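Figure 3 (text version): structure tokens given as input.
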């Protein structure tokens, strides 16, 4: 018998005011990977979605589905071949916005809809039946890639630069990585390397005595270590003792590809590393929204019996969420100065999915005399989704409305809870800004706070 068998539908609760809930992910049950059963469930869910259509303006999955139905011989879902379901699944970035912000039929409603986790199950079933997609899975091996690139960071960045058209064209031809997509940079000194010289906590800071284990995340560790430097400096100024901890990647790329056993293994290993810190009174802070979502919400659904994972989920806060909490509990250290030119803050989907509110915008509004504009539209990036030639057109299509909003705000700085979203929007902005306009500088929200303090 499986440790987490597929759950029966919840009791009928039409009209209930209960909060949305999610079932544990039954990845250890063989029935979970029954492709015929998965497609039957997709048929049930897609038919409900077709009758509702509230999600028409989210990701590209829903317009694709509705167009298929409308163009079918019957004008109903029964006229859409099941082979076409793959196109709907491919367009989903697992952003969770349909589940959290639009769908009226999520559990405990009797219809029991969880569109993103249904797509996750479909991908897991397809992966088990056919194997993974080689290039995407290699891109998702972020720790290996980061370690390999570290000694030759300059060469790696030159080879993958968008301006290096011959090599990027070759990469597109052999690997399907879109030559027009900006790729993350690598660094010879990782966040862990730089943390060795981080400032000590201010003994008279307003939050002196608090302790935090900062989960670097793979992107910060290898691709944007200045985010960790900024976070450690800002926390030290508040009097918080902060230690950078990076055991390994949270597994978001593997989740997106349906390799759930791999993600569960990461959850177990990472939780074991953080367990002694939590037992010693440390809180946990994540520097990237997607990773915070994994630790708080996805991991406990994959291994619901794992007490260390539960403790880690309960202890984890997003860096902006944590800073807002400090400000409310003790006030922030004095010294914040205005940021000229205004800041556009993109509220990433994986931050919205954490149900904590727009904490990055709330944090930035603590900076005096600074214009802060909140953008709550999907960037469209979705990890490898925004990089692969097959799916990048959808990523651009979905991200354009957000880029237009950023352009309209005319702020000098653009930031996001998700660094990949920020990079993607920055690239889309080129087509939206008037000729001759300067592109806004890009940064993580905590880097803006560090800049306001004069720490960077």
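Below: residues designed for each position.
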């Amino acid at each position: 018998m499986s440790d987490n068998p597929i759950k029966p539908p919840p009791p009928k609760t039409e009209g209930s005011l209960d909060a949305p809930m999610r079932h544990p992910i039954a990845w250890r049950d063989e029935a979970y990977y029954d492709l015929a059963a998965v497609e039957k469930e997709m048929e049930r869910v897609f038919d409900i979605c077709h009758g509702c259509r509230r999600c028409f303006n989210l990701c590209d999955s829903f317009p694709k589905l509705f167009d298929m139905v409308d163009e079918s011989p019957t004008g109903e879902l029964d006229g859409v071949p099941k082979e076409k379901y793959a196109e709907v699944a491919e367009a989903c970035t697992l952003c969770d916005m349909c589940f959290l912000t639009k769908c009226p039929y999520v559990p405990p409603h009797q219809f029991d809809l969880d569109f993103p986790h249904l797509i996750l199950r479909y991908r897991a079933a397809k992966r088990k039946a056919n194997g993974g997609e080689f290039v995407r899975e290699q891109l998702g091996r972020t720790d290996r890639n980061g370690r390999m690139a570290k000694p030759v960071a300059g060469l790696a960045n030159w080879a993958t630069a968008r301006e290096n058209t011959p090599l990027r064209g070759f990469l597109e031809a052999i690997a399907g990585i879109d030559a027009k997509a900006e790729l993350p940079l690598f660094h010879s000194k990782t966040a862990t390397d730089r943390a060795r010289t981080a400032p000590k906590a201010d003994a008279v800071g307003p939050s002196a005595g608090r302790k935090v284990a900062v989960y670097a995340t793979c992107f910060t560790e290898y691709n944007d270590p200045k985010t960790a430097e900024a976070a450690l400096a800002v926390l030290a100024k508040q009097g918080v003792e902060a230690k950078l901890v990076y055991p390994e990647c949270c597994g978001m790329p593997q989740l997106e590809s349906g390799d759930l056993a791999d993600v569960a293994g990461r959850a177990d290993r990472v939780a074991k590393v953080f367990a002694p810190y939590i037992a010693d009174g440390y809180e946990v802070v994540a520097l990237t929204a997607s990773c915070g979502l994994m630790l708080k919400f996805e991991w406990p659904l994959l291994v619901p019996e794992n007490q260390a994972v539960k403790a880690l989920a309960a202890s984890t806060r997003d860096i902006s969420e944590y800073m807002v909490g400090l400000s409310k509990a003790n006030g922030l250290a004095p010294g914040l100065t205005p940021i000229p030119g205004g800041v556009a803050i993109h509220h990433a989907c994986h931050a919205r999915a954490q149900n904590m509110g727009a904490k990055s915008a709330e944090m930035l509004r603590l900076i005096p005399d600074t214009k802060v504009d909140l953008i709550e539209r999907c960037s469209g990036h979705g990890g490898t989704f925004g990089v692969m030639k097959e799916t990048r057109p959808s990523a651009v299509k979905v991200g354009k409305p957000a880029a237009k909003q950023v352009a309209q705000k005319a702020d000098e700085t653009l930031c996001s809870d998700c660094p990949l979203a920020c990079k993607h929007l920055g690239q889309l902005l080129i087509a939206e800004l008037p000729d001759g306009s300067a592109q806004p500088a890009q940064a993580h929200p905590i880097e803006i706070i560090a800049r306001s303090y004069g720490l960077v």
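The chain has a mean pLDDT of 92.
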